[in-house]
Design a protein that fits this description.
- This protein is mostly helical and 123 residues long.
- The chain has one domain (6-113).
- Helix content is 63%, strand content 0%.
- It contains six helices and no strands.
- Helix 1 (6-24) packs across helix 6 and helix 5 packs antiparallel against helix 6 (98-113).
- It starts with 5 loop residues before the first helix and ends in a 10-residue tail after the last helix.
- The model is unreliable at 117-123 (pLDDT under 50).
Length: 123
């Protein structure tokens, strides 16, 4: 994958921001999103979306495109989601489970403090 291509970076960064923003939504917003994409019964779709974008976090950080602090926060959100299982993937518990409240709080910290792209290569 060519991470020196600014268009690729923009796509990856946008995917990451959208995934974290969905995790920052309140429970009603998350359920509405899941219904809109046809996965109303599967809250794990929210985690899967972050996972796809977070796979490139090391490369983005190494290239200087994501700050160390932002990368650490994305990894923290990922760890919170990785610790979930079973009944926590039921959208019915999005509003009541403390685990989901912790994910939302971390996602909101990322959205409101993100430093975003640190460096875009010159071509």
């Amino acid at each position: 994958m060519d991470l020196d291509d600014p268009r690729r970076l923009a796509w990856i960064h946008g995917t990451l921001i959208r995934a974290v923003a969905r995790l920052a939504l309140d429970a009603d917003g998350q359920r509405a999103y899941l219904e809109a994409i046809g996965t109303a019964g599967l809250a794990d779709e929210l985690a899967l979306e972050l996972g796809e974008a977070a796979l490139l976090m090391d490369q983005l950080e190494d290239a200087g495109w994501v700050s160390e602090a932002d990368a650490a926060l994305v990894r923290r959100i990922g760890a919170l989601l990785d610790a979930m299982g079973g009944a926590l993937w039921d959208p019915g518990v999005l509003a009541t489970a403390p685990e989901w409240a912790a994910v939302r709080a971390a996602a909101r910290r990322f959205i409101f403090r993100t430093e975003g792209v640190v460096r875009v290569p010159q071509r």
